[in-house]
Amino acid sequence: MPSRQVFLDFGGTLVSEPPDPYPTFRSVLGAEGFELSRERYLEADRIASARIEPMRYRQLGQSPSFLDLSIIETLRELGIADPSGRIVIRLHGEFTSPEWRPVYPETVRVLETLSESKVPVHLISNSTDMLVETIARRGWDRFFRSVTFTQEAGAEKPAPAAFHLALARARCPAAEALHVGDSWVADYLGASRIGMRAVWLNRSGRPPPEPCESARDLTGVLPLIAK
Length: 227
Prior knowledge:
By secondary structure, this protein is α/β, with parallel strands linked by helices. The protein folds into two domains: 5-17 and 102-225, Rossmann fold; 22-95. The protein contains ten helices and six strands, in the order βαααααβαβααβαββα. It has a six-stranded parallel sheet, with helices on both faces. It starts with a strand and ends with a helix.
């Protein structure tokens, strides 16, 4: 039976994986009169990340957002005061901008094709609530019937909770869903284990760990949806 609804991963599937944040920190802080070496940034980021990671799921719906909390704590470790919040606002804007994670060449065309074909498309990503803003700033919210980020599920893919939340939101049984993602473990195995049909987006072309449905890019996924 053809899959009735399509679930797509975000990073590595629709857009590139996150780039190194250091150049962005260095640029923004440089404009504010602060010099920042890579070594100093990496140490501050390591300490700040370890401190706030236990708050990832508790921070949902709270102010500051988890993204802003991460920025604030990194600035604190760097010894940089930001009483007006101007630096946080600038960094937040950079990390949610369309330019931060380049889109793959075929992504928009495939999303438009799916939209025109009336196939219900949903997004599910190992991310925080910044995903919703990121999608809106790209103008992509029109493509998705629902957006699920794992911060609200309380666990990241391949945990079943993330997939179950997305399926419940879409009112879609697992047997009628097709999930596409670039991670063998998080996407392919995670979706398969709860009964979703899974397609591994294998952009590198490397051999899969075991036989599976796969595609080299999103264009190659289109014919699989109708099967």
